[in-house]
Amino acid sequence: MSIAVIKVGTFESYYRLIVDCEDKYSGELWRGEFKNRYIEEMTTKAKNPKQFAVFVKMLLAGFKREVPDEILLDLLTQNDLEQLKQRKTNSNESIGLPDDPRLKKYLILTLKGEYEKTHYPLPLSFLEEPDALTLRRTFTRLQGLIQLQNSNGFSQY
Length: 157
What we know:
Layout: E1 2-11, E2 14-22, E3 29-35, H1 36-45, H2 52-64, E4 71-77, H3 78-89, E5 105-112, E6 117-126, H4 132-151
Antiparallel strand pairs: 1-2, 2-3, 3-6, 4-5, 5-6
């Protein structure tokens, strides 16, 4: 799974973070849209509050791998989260969630401090029917990959 697009934009009088996640092999897409208030409340619940702008900078630093020892990003399914909870509590109970990879995914930003770790989960929903702009971006990205392969002497067959 690779992250294809991250957008941060200002809309009207508030900030909104949009995270698009694309499976580079299947083209399936997941999206999360988060208002600044949601981000700030979520970080407060995680007991390490961050302002919206700081959180966005951390997220971008994680994608660019600017501080790999401090900021980690993971993309997990609901089943992945359930397994982590079971390991953490040493429980063998299973909720028995269906193993549909298109279910909600979670982009987890982990901030590692000297004596603590803080996990910030961002839920991403599967896009059944992506909008035209998202499809156009995917098409352009794939065209670029094909051109790159052709310029490096790779055959398409």
